[in-house]
Amino acid sequence: MSDTSRIPLSVEFFPPKTPEGVAKLRAVRQQLYALKPEFCSVTFGAGGSTQEGTFNAVSEILAEGVSAASHFSCIGATRDTVRAQLATLKAMGVKRLVALRGDLPSGYGAGGEFHYASELVAFIRAETGDDFFIEVAAYPEIHPQARSPEADLQAFAAKVKAGANSSITQYFYNPDAYFRFVDDVAAMGLNVPVVPGIMPITSSTQLMRFSDASGAEIPRWIRLRLQSFGDDTASIKAFGLDVVTSLCEQLRAGGAPSLHFYTMNQSVATIALCERLGLVA
Ligand code: FAD
């Protein structure tokens, strides 16, 4: 068994849009609970577009006896709407938030009373004290809209200084970017865990699409190999499992505090990775 055996993990879901999706996610969760995640998080559509689905999924996870984190994005929101949503989350028994700016779909006017996630973190702390454990997003490969790498680090520092307890990264396949970011964070005197976000590789086209939008780099050697498999999904999955297992092993060996899996509401790839990593009891 590798030395990854005791690293904690968490898993992320998105709120399903259909009754079938809700039923499928229930089954997926039961499979993933075998991994004993520290918490399960549920994403939140910018502009509050998925609020009901997010809160419903979070409620179900809590009712299943598992710790749940609600993502919470502030773009387009007002102080009053955020205050009301925080009260709802508190009443539901939620103790952990992933506080984000979010991205408005094109066509939405900017509007809203929050510009950056740091303002949301400060607002949550001012309104609710220490009621919530607050996670924020981190970008080892630099957020696509950052003015500069240094400005992006300062933006991260602002979120921590506003009261964030921990952070989860955008996914990446280049561990050096992560280790450099962790060093930079420590050099700024910021004492927060930086948990790597792990995206299993199961489909070439889906990965390229997400990565274009999020600014996560697919290294050339990975991209070309994935393209060379064409429609051969078995080879894509086998290659993806090798690549991401090796990434997780390097992260663990380098001191990553935990692993956060972007499950895409699927259990197979995350479980296969955890089996390879010796994380399945
Ligand atoms: P911020 O930290 O506010 O940063 C956004 C940009 O503004 C960066 O370029 C930063 O450098 C810059 N910036 C920050 N402060 C300043 C300042 N004072 N002056 C100038 N520039 C500044 N999106 C969703 O819609 N829903 C989700 O549930 C969701 N979950 C996510 C979970 C994780 C772990 C991650 C990594 C991302 C998630 N996202 C989600 C995507 C996220 O909303 C986008 O990446 C968004 O573009 C930035 O959000 P942020 O919270 O990182 O923003």
Number of strands: 9
Bound heterogens, unique = flavin-adenine dinucleotide
Could you give a short account of the major beta sheet? 9 strands, parallel
Shape, principal axes of CA atoms? globular
Helix content percent band: 40-55%
Per the CATH scheme, the topology name is: TIM Barrel
Oligomeric assembly: single chain
Average pLDDT across residues?
94
Beta content: 5-15%
Poorly predicted tracts of residues:
none
Number of helices: 10
Report the top-level CATH class.
Alpha Beta
Cα separation of the termini: 11 Å
Overview of this protein structure:
By secondary structure, this protein is of the alpha/beta class. It has a single domain (3-276), classed as Alpha-Beta Barrel (TIM Barrel). Helices cover 46% and strands 13% of the residues. The protein has ten helices and nine strands. The protein has helices spanning 19-33, 51-63, 79-92, 117-128, 149-161, 175-187, 204-214, 220-228, 233-253, 268-276; strands at 9-13, 40-42, 68-73, 96-100, 133-138, 166-169, 194-195, 197-198, 259-262. The protein has a nine-stranded parallel beta sheet with strand order 7-6-5-4-3-2-1-9-8. Strand 6, helix 6 and strand 7 form a beta-alpha-beta unit. The longest helix has 21 residues, at 233-253. The N and C termini lie close together (11 Å). Flavin-adenine dinucleotide is lined by residues 43-44, 46, 71, 73, 98, 100-103, 116-118, 137, 143, 145-146, 151-152, 155, 158-159, 168, 170, 197.
